[in-house]
Amino acid sequence: MKPEDLASLADKQRAINAACKHRIGVCTESGCVSSQSDQIAAKFNELVKSRGLQKDVRVVGVGCMGLCGNGPMVKIDDGAPMYQNVTPEHCAAILDGLDSPLGNPQLRHLLCDLNQPFFRRQKLVVRSNSGLIDPEDINDCIAHGAYESLLKVLTELSPTDVINQITLSGLRGRGGAGFPTGLKWSTVAKAGGPSKFVICNGDEGDPGAFMDRSVMEGDPHRVIEGMAIAAYAVGADHGVIYVRAEYPLAVKRLTRAINQAMRHELLGNSLFGTRFNFNIEIRLGAGAFVCGEETALIASVEGNRGVPRPRPPYPANSGLYGCPTLINNVETYATIAPIIREGAAWFAAIGTAKSKGTKIFALTGAVQNTGLIEVPMGISLRDIVFDLGGGVPAGRTFKAIQTGGPSGGCICGQNLDIPLDYESLAAIGSIMGSGGMIVMDDTSNMVDVARFFMEFCMSESCGKCVPCRVGTWQIHHLLDRIYKGHGAPEDLVLLKELCEMVKATSLCGLGQSAPNPVLSTLRNFESDYLALIEKGRADREAALSGPHDSGTTVPLEVIS
Amino acid sequence: MYPTGPIPKPPSDDKRWRIVEATMRRNGFEPQALIESLHSVQQAMGYLDEPAMKWVAACLRVPLSKIQGVATFYHHFTLKPQGKHTCVVCLGTACYIKGSRQILESVQSQLGIQGGQTTADGRVSLLVARCIGACGLAPATVLDGQVLAKTDTDLLLKRLQSVTDGKAES
User: Fold this and answer.
1) Which residues from chain A sit within 8 angstroms of residue B133, using beta carbons?
2) A209 contacts chain B (CB < 8 A)
3) Which of A303, A452, A462 minimises the CB distance to B32?
4) What CA–CA distance (Å, rounded) separates A94 from A74?
5) Options 3.30.230.10, 3.40.50.9100, 3.40.30.10, 3.40.50.880; which CATH number does A17-120 get?
6) Are residues B40 and B99 located together in one domain of the fold?
7) Mean pLDDT on A428-438
8) Which end of chain B, N or C, is less surrounded by CB atoms within 10 Å?
9) Interchain pair A365, B91: CB under 8 A
10) Residues B89 and B69 both lie in one domain
11) Is the per-residue pLDDT at A80 higher than 80?
12) What is the CA radius of gyration of chain A?
């Protein structure tokens, strides 16, 4: 494609879009598809055809609109009105109300209030096109600005300029650890070697997180564009997207997007007539949480067991097949194009002093509004849970919010007012993580939660280093004992000691962070542990002190 | 390096092996395409058995021990044939908080098997997922590829019953 072709293609598609009076966007991401949104799209198409509206109304499958808990979602024109909990039976009525800007009054109960804090308080940077564009149609994506940033980078900026822009923007890795992206890029750029690789980490293994899936399904071209810009900046010509096999729709959309981009010569050789070549291939994960760790991911891409290795050498110097390799998370790549388009200063103005920009979170658990939110860094957890999330369901009280998945911690009510950034979360024993946020109410027992995460880490430990392989098993065993009422107060001391040991001596991030859920619950919710220990003790005493009729006794032989 | 000799013969004359061979050919029979090749075997045949692994080993020129290592390392690969129907219970954090353990226990007691096992008549496999990414719809379960959002235990058990009774044969 020649540089001028992009703009003319965009204009052409915009004209096609404008010629159509109405656009019905049906969410076709995994969440809504599982509530049969594909049938809704089919029904709309059928009705449009039978009513002869093909010229005026276009039905498009779009990406996530955020409020996944109320899906399937349907969006009319560029955002309003928006309907929730739609079923195929509602399609006819929605079509009837197309010309009214407030939607069909008969469907008032389905209308989604776009003025509620859930939408109002979000700031869409990465997800700005999600829910608007048809991710399966490259022309529609181009009409909404896709590949403009790549064109600008290739024709106006030098690789050093690009890295400077990213450094100035203050962007930090969205995979969890928050390493400055500009610094990572410049390290890879400086590394020598005949060939370099760019890898996109789409192995979103954290239970409770689905931001990356949504970005890959809802706007795959933005990820590809980000990777191409990164490749230009660091001097790579080959990219790999590593996606979980559990995300078949994301794999399908990415494959389709790559093929379309190749056909449009937005991937391949001599992009926009420059000397820059870039190709992307997709590699499937196979269900191993540890493959989110960069050295394990590289081992997996090379066709081996996903086992991490000691660093240094860092992948920036010796990564895939021994070549310098840049690894970033899906969300990080998806943030690149907006930064280039709007400028580093614009991005740096959002957020806090040390954590710039926005972050997508998957808000789930015991809250009214579950789904995806993109908020500026620095917003408080209280605002997220009680304003955007609408608070815990009636009749229940807030107990904890868990961030960072199995590597993060449980935050109690007292800490809800801290600003959300990498440092503040680390200071209270949790991490930003990839963005899972699970709200728990008073029905959740924190020992059970800690045991749940430890069971996860225990079974996901790759087994290479002893502290993680044996330590997680022992911690899980202790937690299980306490949860079942067989614990003693001394167990808590032992538990803490074990956690510190695993944290300090494990080889990779999985082991080093595995004790976080235990340590944070021990610190914030020690009463849950003590209550279980005390109850177990009382039950045993009751069992020993003669006849009784309660069924809660614990036979002595199981106390170990 | 592309193999110079003829490609080893597949374990049987089942046509589905051609799909696997095509995957390996597309990747130039490179050893690093091992995981892709195993995905392809599992997709075509349903599971990885020893003849399949031996054949892939010969095609990609990697030791069988390595294939065994990779196949057993990743949760996605299964070495046993799956049942005719599959029921997946998500045990991700959001689903767990909303009671998916209880759902799993009810299903286990109805089917009389544990997670990861298949009923003796080969009709249903019960799988446990770490997170299927449908956290907004927790607790989520998947019955034969169809996600049941905000699962109602009784409804799931009823559907399972019709599957085990053979009424939902398809």
Assistant:
1) 30-31, 204, 209-210, 213, 246-247
2) yes
3) A303
4) 9
5) 3.40.30.10
6) no
7) 91
8) C
9) no
10) no
11) no
12) 25
- The 10s digit of each residue's pLDDT in A452-473 is 999 999 999 999 999 999 999 9
Q: Is B152 on the interface with A (CB under 8 A)?
A: no
Strands A358-365 and A371-376 turn out to be antiparallel
The Cα angle at residue A480 between residues A477 and A482, in degrees rounded to 5: 110
What is the pTM assigned to this prediction? 0.94
Residue A472 carries which side chain, given as an amino acid letter? T
Q: How far is B130 from chain A (nearest CA, A)?
A: 6
Band of residue B46 on the pLDDT scale cut at 50, 70, 90: very high
* B92 part of contact set with chain A, CB < 8 Å: yes
Residue range A447-536 in CATH 1.20.1440.230: yes
Q: What is the ipTM of this complex?
A: 0.91
Residue that has been written with the tokens 């939408």 in this structure: A119
Structural domain for B47, as ranges: 17-73
pLDDT at A560 over 80: no
Burial class (CB in 10 A: 0-12, 13-18, 19+), A111: middle
Q: Measured between alpha carbons, how far is A494 from A492 in angstroms, rounded to an integer?
A: 5
Taking only the tens place, the pLDDT of each residue in A302-336 is 999 999 999 999 999 999 999 999 999 999 999 99
Closest CA to B73 of A454, A307, A465: A307
Q: Are strands B85-90 and B124-129 parallel, antiparallel or unpaired?
A: parallel
Q: Mutating which of A210, A321, A363, A453 best tests the B interface, going by the most B Cβ atoms within 10 A? A: A210
Is residue B108 one of the residues assigned to a domain? yes
Q: Please compute the mean of the pLDDT values over residues A527-542 and round it to a whole number.
A: 95
CATH of domain A145-348: 3.40.50.11540
- DSSP for B106-157, written as a single string: HHHHHHT--TT-B-TTS-EEEEEES--S-GGG-S-EEETTEEETT--HHHHH
Class of domain A358-444: alpha beta
Nearest to B76 among A245, A438, A449 (CB): A245
Chain B nearest C-alpha distance from A341 (Å): 31
| Mutation to test the B interface, candidates A367, A385, A438, most B Cβ within 10 Å | A438
